[in-house]
Amino acid sequence: MVDRIPEPELMDDHEQAKAYAEADFSEPNRLFVDLFREAFPDVVPMGTVLDLGCGPADIPLLLASLLPGAQFHGVDGSEAMLAHARRAWKAAGIGHRAEFFEGTLPQIDLPRDDYDAILSNSLLHHLHAPDVLWTAVKARGGAGAPVLIMDLRRPESVQELDKLVETYAGDAPAVLRRDFRNSLFAAFRPQEVREQLREAGLLDLDVRIVSDRHLAVIGRLGRA
Ligand SMILES: C[S@@+](CC[C@H](N)C(=O)[O-])C[C@H]1O[C@@H](n2cnc3c(N)ncnc32)[C@H](O)[C@@H]1O
Known about the structure:
Layout (H helix, E strand, L loop, with lengths): L13 H9 L3 H14 L8 E5 L5 H9 L4 E6 L2 H13 L6 E5 L14 E5 L9 H10 L5 E7 L5 H12 L4 H13 L3 H11 L5 E4 L4 E7 L4
Bound molecules: S-adenosylmethionine.
């Protein structure tokens, strides 16, 4: 059994943010988009989508073509990451469809009270107090809003953990290999996330195992 070892919350070191923004996360990013499409096939492609811990905002950039009428708000405590996000959206020619805000959960200041969908990828395992994510989901999600939160899940043994690092980051730069290993130690298990949701009263959200290293929390917020 591997005990959780939290890692630093923010990725605000410039070298770390650059290595992360330049890394190839196309496989998990595609998985996220596929899960969104399968879970919410009838989602209206309008409204404003909030991405919590958006980092370089690659996932909403992929979703932007699936939801051509939507606007995107991303929030992250790392200005270094947000600089990459702004640059990528501008380079894609759709900078006008996204706004990025520096803010560290639980203190985030956003222009809207309610969002039409809430996303988050790979934020949960960074949080020392995971309830801040669930509090933000409840506070910012409109009634019936689709929610998709994906994250790593902590392996059962150090051997399994090191095998995942070798498989998925064996050829990656040292900083990314180190971060991936630390992230696997910091990640929650599906049962731990189920308990977090129960404590938060988010009973409409399900926890699913979606890959050999990921879990996802999927559902619509209860209608008021
Ligand atoms: C592993 S990155 C994931 C980025 C992006 N969601 C993606 O999938 O590529 C985690 C991000 O969460 C941000 N973060 C961590 N703790 C945070 C907090 N308490 N409030 C806001 N952002 C936070 C980090 O700065 C980092 O950019």
